[in-house]
Amino acid sequence: MSDYVTNAHTIALVGFGEAANAVLAGWGLGGSGRVSAYDIKTDDAETAPRMRSHYTVAGVRGADTLQDALAGASLVFCLVTADRALAAAEAAAAVIEPGTLWLDGNSCAPQTKRAAAEAIDGAGGRYVDVAIMAPIFPMRHQTPMLLAGPFAEDAAAAMTAMDMRVDIAGETVGDASTIKMIRSVMIKGIEALTAECMLAAHRAGVADAVLQSLAGSDPGRNWPAKSAYNLERMMVHGARRAAEMREVAATLDGLGLPSRMAQATAEWHDQVARLGLPGGEADLDSRARRILDAL
Predict the structure, then answer these.
(1) How far are the Cα atoms of 48, 60, 86 from residue 38, in angstroms, in the given order?
(2) Which of 108, 11, 95 is nearest to 59 (CA)?
(3) Beta bridge partners of 148
(4) List of residues 6+ apart from 60 with CB closer than 8 A
(5) What is the CA radius of gyration of the chain?
(6) Alpha helix positions (H), the chain
(7) How distant is the alpha carbon of residue 268 from its chain centre?
(8) Phi and psi dihedrals of 93, rounded to 5?
(9) Closest Cα partner for 106 from 83, 75, 135, 136?
(10) C-beta of residue 105 within 8 angstroms of C-beta of residue 128
């Protein structure tokens, strides 16, 4: 582990879900005393004990307040959900220390990121637009990320020293998130199309014939495996992905383009997520039938 990581920076994680835990494990800084974490679930009496247990297991200093988490931090990774990213930045603006790098890795529209940057920079922090460009597993902290904004080079130096894979997308906040948002039209849209196609095929009793036809059209793709994977993404991560797709719709609206596909994608992800189903066995037939049974 680089001395730059262990000695130069005290790190705060705002939002302590899958992404934060993944990069923390990749860094290997659990138990180092250099990392604090805060999650809004700590504010809720019902979920607070579970969050404190997560902090202990991960070896981070669990903070009861955002102010406590940010105290003394020179690097802050904000990894909440897309619908909470701006609120997190606005709350942090009241307590952030001058010069702190605020790395916003949430999947938000460029206009949302610019509003967050205005709050952080106005308080003396240094905001960086971060776009996480692939699933956080299995690469963890080495998942490719794009950076943008006037402080992107400062962030790139720090993150590279932490063995992270970053590229600078531009000097303007929103340059990175625009790429991520437009990419998600396709990636999350395909997941929603998979659900619509495969659930209909199973309900109609023609799943094998549909898969055979798809394989004939695109023989280079393992349609059963990819379809099973796409359904798992929606079952386990649908709520977060739906929030992202609403930000994608806002991005398209800002470009003066229709966002009907993005909006429909968000609805599909939300509907599957509300079923509360675990991913279970990596089998298309099993996943499709469990979703159909729960609809």
Answers:
(1) 11, 10, 16
(2) 11
(3) 129, 170
(4) 13, 16, 24, 30, 35, 36, 37
(5) 20
(6) 3-8, 18-27, 48-58, 66-70, 85-93, 110-122, 152-161, 175-204, 207-217, 223-254, 260-273, 284-294
(7) 18
(8) -60, -25
(9) 83
(10) no
Q: How far apart are CA 135 and CA 56, in angstroms?
A: 25
Through-space distance between the first and last CA atoms of the chain, rounded to whole angstroms: 48
Per-residue confidence in pLDDT tens, the chain, 295 aa = 333 444 467 999 999 999 999 999 999 999 999 999 999 999 999 999 999 999 999 999 999 999 999 999 999 999 999 999 999 999 999 999 999 999 999 999 999 999 999 999 999 999 999 999 999 999 999 999 999 999 999 999 999 999 999 999 999 999 999 999 999 999 999 999 999 999 999 999 999 999 999 999 999 999 999 999 999 999 999 999 999 999 999 999 999 999 999 999 999 999 999 999 999 999 999 999 999 999 9
Pairing of strands 61-62, 75-78: unpaired
Give the phi and the psi of residue 118 in degrees, each rounded to 5: -60, -40
Tell which residue, 268, 294, 187, 283, has the closest CA to residue 232: 283
Helix (H, G, I), strand (E, B) or coil at 126: strand
Enumerate the β-bridge partners of residue 76: 12, 102
- Contact assessment for residue 76 and residue 100, using Cβ atoms and an 8 Å cutoff: yes
Q: Which of 68, 83, 76 is nearest to 128 (CA)?
A: 76
**pTM flag (> 0.85):** yes
Given a contact cutoff of 8 angstroms between Cβ atoms, the answer to whether 270 and 262 are in contact is no
